[in-house]
Amino acid sequence: MVSVSAWAADFHVSPFGSDSADGSRERPWRSIQHGIDQISPGDTLLVESGSYKPFHIDRWDTSREARITVRAVGGKVSITGYGVYDDRYTAISVLTSYVTIEGFDIDVGAVSAGLRSRGIRVSGEEGDHVRGVHILRNRIRNAGWVGITTSYADDVLIDGNTVWGSKEEHGIYVANSADNPMIVNNTVFLNPEAGIQINGDPELGGDGIITGALVAGNRIYLNGSAGSAALNLASVRDSVFMNNLIYDNQSQGIASWDDEGGEEYGCKNNLYINNTVIMPPGSRHVFSLRHGSTGNRVLNNIFVHLGGKDSLAVDRASIAGLRSDYNIVTRIEDTAGRLVTLESWQQQTGQDAHSLVATAAEVFRDAASHDYSLREGSPAIGRGVAVEILGKDITGAVREGPRPDIGAYRYQPRVPAGDR
């Protein structure tokens, strides 16, 4: 029996090619869309440096073993503007399973929120989800609506992208009862709503719940001028949020709630661990659990508010099953909505018995310059709790010892220039 991989082939697209050629390295095609229309599942389309039109990938009979890969190679490979696919305005549209989109520089070109244009859209349908789409190392800006959006799409991987300047809503938006998304190592900034939003959409079919998410190693800043949290979670369950750096956002840091679907749709049984979240004066909560967001673990996080608001806010409907501890905080909003000290919160609830109060200056190397690595003598060093899932920090440094450092960064002493 011959495997699918034995038939897989590489094809080429170049700004100096021709769509009457054969797609070989020596005779590349000119347009990405023409190349996609010629290749088969299992093939890779290699796109050389240059400027290209938007493209789409419609329904194909793909599988894990017959992935379609469209990869930018060489220097800058630009996609400018958008097309209309599936009645949506999108620069790159993926409507099938097991596709990889890698390395593109996408400028959707929106100057206002008047058109709901997207940079990359991945979409299935209710009851017929797409699966296994990978969005890797792309640069996406100036979407009229959202930079990267997925809907009814399970097992998506959104890794290493830089997304900024959406005009209406979010940087990255994962939606519609779609399980097991991995959103890792992205940089997301200057979006008016959330930097990253995950929403089960209880009113839009399916079970209205997203389970099994991993959100780790992302840098999220300067979002939220229109009111959303930097990391906005609605009806997300059994998921891990780890090693994220969130700062200078205008509304909230991390918000976990129900999308107004009712307390049965709260964000339940999640692990929030080793995140660093710093909120500026005038903003709201650093981290909040609302509307039936029960059974959560909140461990080893740095939650610092630079103004007068709280680090942690938990309402009465979300306190059940909470384990919050080994965090660095400033103030707490208790279940009655009152701003209280850490000591008062500990006495009320028994939570955060090993947590600490500290300022940004005490914790970070140079917060004023947005260097949120740990300074020498930081109270975050060696004060966390070991959890099996912890392996590396946001930089890839291995966490060592029985008592890990608190926050997204493992402490690493600076080496004097003369000793390097």
Give a quick rundown of the structure.
This protein is mainly β and 420 residues long. The chain has three helices and 43 strands. It has one domain: Pectate Lyase C-like, CATH 2.160.20.
Give short descriptive properties of this protein:
5% helix, 420 residues, mainly beta, 12-stranded parallel β-sheet, 3 helices, 13-stranded mixed β-sheet, 35% strand, disordered N terminus, Pectate Lyase C-like
**Mean pLDDT score:** 95
Radius of gyration: 23 Å
Between the first and last Cα atoms, what is the distance in angstroms?
56 Å
| Shape descriptor | globular
Number of domains: 1
What name is given to the CATH topology?
Pectate Lyase C-like
Biggest sheet descriptor: 13 strands, mixed
Helix content: under 10%
The assigned CATH architecture is: 3 Solenoid
Number of strands: 43
Counted by DSSP, the helix tally is 3
- How much of the sequence lies in strands comes to 35-45%
Q: Uncertain segments of ≥5 residues (pLDDT<50)?
A: 1-5
